[in-house]
Amino acid sequence: MSAFTTYRKSAGIAGTLLLAVSVVACKPATSSNLPTHNLAGGPAAQLESVSLALDGNCLVVGSGASEWLAIWPSGYRLDGDLLMNGLDRVAATGDVLTVTGGSFSSYEDVQAMLVTPVPPTCRARPYWVVAVGGVIRDGP
Known about the structure:
The protein is of the alpha+beta class.
C-alpha cells in the first residue's frame, strides 16, 4: 500500500467523522420531554394568567384553585426548571405567564392531538392546550 493510498483512507475517515460530528453538534434541540401538540393555531383561544410549577415530573400551570397539565406547542421542552422553545428560554418554574389556549377535562380529549405523549403519572388531571404563539411572560 502506498503512502498516498494510506493518506487518502485516513483523510476519508477523518472527513466522515468531521461531518458526523458537525451534524450532531449543529442539530437543534427539538425533541421534547413535555407533552406537545402540532395544531396549527391551537384550540379556541381563552386567556389565562397562570404560574408555572413542577409537580413530580409534570409541568403544570395553575391559577388559584385551578391547575392543568400544559400541552405545549411542538418545539417546547423542559431543561431543568426552564421552559424552552427550541433554544430560547421562555420561562422558569415559579414564573407567572399569560397563556392562550383551551382546557380539556381528560386524557381521551387530548390524546389524538399529541405529538409527544403525556407521561402516565401526569394523566389524572385536566389539561391546558397552549395555542401556538400563546405564551406571554408577565414578569421580568
